Amino acid sequence: MKKLLNGFFLKILMGGMLVCFACALAGQNVQTGGPLEKPENLLAGVSKAASRLDANVKVRKNKTYRLSFSCNGDPLGWCSGVQLSFDGGKPWRPYYPLVLGKEWKRKNYHFIAPGENLNLKFFPCSGGKSCYDQLELAEAPLPESVMVKNGLCFNYEPRQAVPDAPLKDVTPEEKERGYLVYFRGNPRDTYADSIPKRSEVTGAIEIRATPGEYEPAFFSVYALKDLKNIRIQVSDFSDDKGGKISRENVDVRTVKCWPQRTAYNTLTYYNIPELLEKRGTLDVPRNSTQTFYLIVKVPEDSRPGRYRAAIHIAPEGCEKAMVNLHLETLPFKLEKPVETGRYMYLDYCWNDRSFPFEIGDVLADLKQHGVDGLWLYLSRFKPNGFTLQWSADNKRIEAFNWPALAELQALRKKHGMKGPLVLSGNGGSFELAIKEHLKLKMTPSPNRGEGEWLGEEQDQEWFRQLYRDACQSLDRFIRETGGGEYGDWVFEGVDEPTEFTDRRRQAMYQMTMARDAGLKTQILCDVANDDRCKFIGKIAPFLKNIIFTRQFCANAATNRKCLEMAGQTGCHPWFYGDGCYSGNNEQLMQEGGLMPNRLYNGFLMWKSRAKGKALWLYTRFAGGSPHDDFDNLNYWEPKDCMIVYPGRENPREIIPTLQWEGSREGIDDYHYLHTLQTLIRKAKSQSQGKAASRAQEIEGKLAELLERIPWLDDYSSQSFDNAAAKRCRDAIADWIVELMRLMERLKP
Question: Maximum CA pair distance of the chain?
Answer without folding.
Answer: 91
